[in-house]
From TrEMBL:
The lineage of its organism: Bacteria, Bacillati, Bacillota, Bacilli, Bacillales. Residues 314-372 form the GerMN domain. InterPro entries: GerMN. Residues 82-93 have a biased composition (Polar residues). The keyword Cell membrane does not apply. Residues 105-124 have a biased composition (Low complexity). Residues 82-126 are annotated as: Disordered. This is GerMN domain-containing protein. It comes from the Bacteria. The chain crosses the membrane at residues 50-71. Keywords: Membrane, Transmembrane, Transmembrane helix. Pfam families: Germane.
Length: 403
């Protein structure tokens, strides 16, 4: 191909020789036409739908994640009869509002609320529709003893105490084995206790629980944590001072996360009591969960914490939000818990669980009895709020099934 004869100067010169072309329309009219075309294109352009769709997808995903916790919390927060809800709406934190004119609008007045049932009519297992509660025990019969065994919840978040009564003369290890036979973890909505997979015995001189574990039978850090929490809490509830770990009869067991452990001194768990509703709708009282580093140091502080704790991970406060504790004092091993004026209580299982959580927490601080003051009713379940009540000896008592 030959070399082009066009260069920059020739191109420019040729362009200059082109005839001058001008639109006869005024500039203002041309500007208006261009602006109208731009506006028409903007109207015809389809909106970008990605962000609304993405936002809806995010909302649905978040709802799917948090709905079990919300449902779990709602079950506990809504266990009050309609009469109680009406009363609570008319009350403040310290005192209920007084009606300024009792005769005003009498024709439109609502019918009187039904009275709470007497204590004898409360079903000991009935918590609410679809929810059951196993009350604890404050006085153990002379010929009996309490055996409390811990079970993992089905989400492996923590361990739950379940208690039975056995003969007083029964060895504690035999009592554990009997509890494992009597208690149906599946029916309660719990996982099987890890104590069923080990060999248990006692070292009587040292008051120690001996746990013999198959090598490699406990897997991962979660497995280590659940196993140790189960053994430590069970040993504490049964009064042991030490735990000795063995593996096939040899001293020590190699945990995957904690390494080799040969013994453990039994210590009291964190103070405070919370609740949990299992997948089968069973409400349990559980030992305090260390949600932060600042643990309350007194019964008063702990009760306030139990009512204001941020709920999550399936755990719930045992003191309802509408219950206000004014003061806690002590005298002669008796803790006096005074409710604020205007706090409404009901003879209802929700409040039965609250009373037992206070009785259990008081026992953790060494008290022997609890006296309640400022209560708006005299009786909740089997407990007379006019009298001093012994502290809880064991929570979540399951009676053996008799045919």
């Amino acid at each position: 191909m030959g070399q082009s004869k066009w260069n920059e100067e020739k191109i420019i010169q040729t362009l200059r020789e082109f005839p001058k072309v001008e639109d006869p329309k005024p500039k203002e009219e041309l500007f208006d036409q261009i602006q109208n075309r731009m506006e028409q294109k903007q109207k015809n352009k389809k909106p970008f739908r990605f962000m609304p769709v993405f936002a809806v997808a995010c909302v649905l995903a978040i709802a799917a994640i948090i709905s079990p916790t919300i449902m779990n919390s709602t079950l506990f927060d809504s266990k009050v009869p309609e009469s109680s809800q009406t009363d609570l709406q008319n009350s403040t934190k310290l005192a209920p509002e007084k009606n300024g004119d009792a005769n005003e609008n009498t024709e439109q007045a609502a019918p009187p609320a039904e009275e709470a049932p007497p204590a004898s009519e409360i079903g000991p297992m009935a918590y609410d529709e679809g929810i059951t509660y196993h009350p604890g025990i404050i006085e153990v019969p002379e010929e009996k003893q309490v055996i409390t065994v811990y079970y993992p919840d089905q989400e492996a978040m923590g361990v739950v105490p379940v208690s039975i009564l056995t003969d007083k003369e029964m060895n504690r290890v035999t009592g554990i084995e009997e509890a494992l036979d009597i208690i149906s973890a599946e029916e309660l909505g719990l996982s099987e206790s890890v104590l069923g997979d080990v060999k248990l015995s006692e070292n009587t001189p040292d008051n120690a629980l001996v746990v013999d574990i198959e090598p490699g039978s406990i897997q991962g850090s979660t497995g280590d944590r659940i196993f140790l929490d189960t053994v430590k809490n069970t040993a504490y509830q049964l009064g042991y001072d030490h735990i000795y770990f063995k593996s096939n009869g040899q001293d020590g067991y190699e945990f995957s996360h904690y390494g080799k452990m040969s013994s453990e001194t039994v210590k009291a768990p964190e103070k405070g009591v919370f609740s949990q509703i299992s997948s089968k709708g069973t409400l349990f009282l559980i030992n305090g969960i260390p949600l932060n580093n600042a643990q309350p140091e007194s019964l008063d502080e702990t009760l306030q914490w139990m009512g204001n704790v941020v709920e999550g991970f399936g755990y719930q406060a045992t003191i309802p939000k509408n219950v206000y504790i004014k003061n806690v004092t002590d005298e002669n091993n008796t803790a006096t818990v005074e409710f604020s004026e205007g706090t409404k209580l009901e003879n209802h299982t929700r409040y039965l669980a609250m009373i037992e959580s206070i009785l259990w927490t008081a026992s953790q601080f060494g008290y022997e009895h609890v006296q309640f003051k400022g209560a708006t009713i005299d009786q909740i379940g089997p407990y007379s709020l006019k009298e001093s009540i012994p502290v809880l000896k064991a929570p979540n008592l399951v009676e053996p099934i008799t045919e």
